[in-house]
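User: Please check token order:
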Amino acid sequence: MDVLDKLKNDWNKNGDRYPKISENEIYAMLHRRSSSIVKWILLISIIEFAFFLTLTFMLNDTPSAKSIVEFIGTSLNTVFGAIDMGINLVFMYLFYVNYKKITNTDTIKNLMSNILKTRKIVSRYIFIKLAYTVVMSLVVLLILYYNDPEWLATFHNYEEHGKSVQATLVYFIGGIIGVSLIVTVLWLFYKLIYGILLKRLNKNYQELKKIEI
């Protein structure tokens, strides 16, 4: 239970014993809390960026990573990395801009508007990251289908027995299941981390609506 909820419970139980708190004081409390939440969204996005960047550098020297780069080509791998980094940097900038806006907001209406913008930006960030992961994974899956020596040897073996269609279906169904698992794990991660903060931000928004009314 946060401070605002505790105050409400105390007022309901012992209304006469507690001094009335003005709307300006409630607004100030919600303002500080909203600013703190958006700051955490920014910090988490930076931590996420640093974590995955470090993980990428650590995995670059593994045999599997080297073989994938060899199949898809250095240029395409660089493009994938640049797009991913670009997505992160753009949204970190947007989170920062929105944090500054909320911090400097001086009216209920503007605070509510900036909270809505923050929620939209976070939702778009999650959607774009997941969509990028799906597209990149499917492109890699398709490239490996035509270039992976181990898979090609297996495919030709099935082809000799007249089962090339079945082999292709197994490959792509298995690949799509793998991509789905990766995307699901990412979605759960974003849902857990950003979802909790967005719920708290939405709660502040609802409280601000009551004050404005």
Notes: The two ends are 24 Å apart (CA to CA). The helical segments are 3-13, 23-59, 63-72, 74-103, 108-147, 149-160, 164-212. The chain is about 90% helix and 0% strand. The longest helix spans residues 164-212.
